[in-house]
Amino acid sequence: MDRKEASKLAEELVGKMTLEEKASQLRYDSPAIPRLGIPAYNWWNEALHGVARAGTATVFPQAIAMAAAFDEELMEKIASAIADEGRAKYNEESKRNDRDIYKGLTFWSPNVNIFRDPRWGRGHETYGEDPYLTSRLGVRFIEGLQGKGEYLKTAACAKHFAVHSGPEAVRHEFNAVASEKDMEETYLPAFEACVKEAGVEAVMGAYNRTNGEVCCGSPTLQKILRERWGFKGHFVSDCWAVKDFHEHHKVTETPEESVKLALENGTDVNCGCTYLKILDAVDKGLLDEKYITQSAIRLFTTRYLLGMFTKTEYDDIDYSVVGCRSHLELAEKSAVESVVLLKNDGILPLSNDDGSIKIVGVIGPNADSRKALIGNYHGTASRYITVLEGIEDICEEKGIRVLYSQGSDLSEENVEPLSGGERGDRISEAETVAEYSDVVILVTGLDETLEGEEGDTGNAYFSGDKEDLELPASQRELLDTVLEMGKKVILINMSGSAINLSEAQERADAVLQGWYPGARGGKAIADILFGKYSPSGKLPVTFYESCDDLPQFEDYSMENRTYRYYSGRPLYPFGYGLTYGDCRAEKISVIKASAEDGAEINVTVKNYGPKTEDVLQLYIKAEDTEWAPLNPALCEFRRVNLGKDEKREICLKILPRGFTTVDDRGKREIRGSKFSIYAGFSQPDERSEELTGIKTIKTQIEI
């Protein structure tokens, strides 16, 4: 069904409703209208990395982990699997007249905000710090959720429009000030791609103000969205954001005035309760009924596009797809691709061919943690495999003994509250395990109780954000203790954001970033440790050593932020990640290039090591304009699989947009004619070269 037909049907249906009925449909928990055959519908559902908060579902790796895979095709497959499970659940629940929250087909995902500051607690819901990477992955995720059938399989929602990335503690009253250049260059591109390329059905507004206007009642943002980009879908408020207009932002004085501001500026669905005041706003002469009608038509257009009032090709998706084998295999593949190898002195992959490993010590608060697998906005898996369990399964096959110690609490001084003493109460046990072991695998990090959304975490003091980039004190004590034992140490860090791992980089034998790898992610990590797979993930965010040289958290200017503008020396750069292979870009040539069509680039790559997957990356730098970012910016990437000594020629395309720059008025255009193009398996920066020992190759383009 096309939108024109759906909109016509919606207009006819809404035309039969009373004012009260139309107003009721603008709530997230829309009641039934029996006389018109309309069942109740709850618009609120989540699918960030699997169907969330609605019982059993496949729990894929957290969004930031999926981003680390740099794999567009995999992203679409994952989203399609999520949509299948969402449809299966909806089909069964509708049969049983269960129309509660988290039971619908409108998924408030993906989160395409830019992870501009490593302190932001919700950054692990995003695809990282780069607008291009975020755009590519966001588009494919939406295409997977919505499908390519006659009807929408599910409806995706790009959030949070438009300038939002903390601080969480003040998001209900905060005014994010962003220049016209930063808006066009950094904060808007992913949303634009989601609308213009993927046809996203919904967009969610942010809590904060952007340049003085509340995002869920912003004429400026709506003009960009609907007039400049041609968005035709519906717009939803973040939850209870409309209430913030009068209670926190103080841009209105009453709920009725907030209703007026939101509806007149395009907010069709109120996640919250303020739209209960719609009729009062009409009675007081504040609100014209036409805005209520307009929003109701948009919402029923979506419901018709989803086929809610007819038979669809998705009605036969049955419940057996939920957590099915193919989806679990997809989740495992995603977890494998997401793991980033940050350091390896040769200890990995672990091998016991010579019988030298008799005991493996596994230590750390995240080693046997289910919470460290799942991130936030998650479903409930049918089975979980922690890192400890994954290692135990492999070691049992190989006849290796595993010793385990929690080592420390995640963030508290002691595991047992009544414990005392000068050191943590699991430190001596950790020392014992390390002493008895031939190799130690130390698993540190965070989980959703320490980084996440305001109100959802146990980190109440910082409302889900991080104060700094350090591991909690209890874990720092554990790390120091284990490293002092003189054993071979492999550190696995599980977090959704940058952590200062400089001590591990200096003293451990290997360092891996495991993220929140999904319900069975422990198996994927163990398989990488023992060489079943080569690690191949790349960092979608910069890992800094500290926040000392970063701007203030509240500062939304991009100056000295992210790899494109950072002038310091990072611990681990964006785009960095090692493998067990040795892939190199050896030759680069320009096939064709023009301002109208972009460019085609051929890159010859060769793997001098064992078989591996790796991510070939292209970066661009406009050389004859003052408006280019400080550093070369990602403009294309491709995941490649190379056998030992295999050489291949890869053709990559740079979109015409890749040659544009943005001036201080926010005008995007191609300026100048000379561009440097860099190709390699990392970005073209000194730190990546220092860490990998490999220099990217370069060519020039004139257009």
Task: Tell me what you see in this structure.
It is a single chain. This protein has 703 residues and is of the alpha/beta class. It folds into three domains: 311 residues, Glycoside hydrolase, family 3, N-terminal domain (TIM Barrel), CATH 3.20.20.300; 217 residues, Glycoside hydrolase family 3 C-terminal domain (Rossmann fold); 120 residues, Immunoglobulin-like, CATH 2.60.40. Helix content is 30%, strand content 18%. It is built from 21 helices and 23 strands. The protein has a six-stranded mixed β-sheet with strand order 9-14-13-12-10-11, sandwiched between helices. Strands 18-17-22-23 form a four-stranded antiparallel β-sheet, with no helix packed on it. A three-stranded parallel β-sheet has the order 3-5-8. Strand 20 and strand 21 form a beta hairpin. Helix 5 runs parallel beside helix 7 and helix 15 packs across helix 19. The longest helix has 24 residues. The radius of gyration is 26 Å and the shape is globular. The model has no long low-confidence stretch (mean pLDDT 97).
Strand count, sense and barrel status of the largest sheet are: 6 strands, mixed
- The helical percent reads 25-40%
Shape: globular
Number of helices: 21
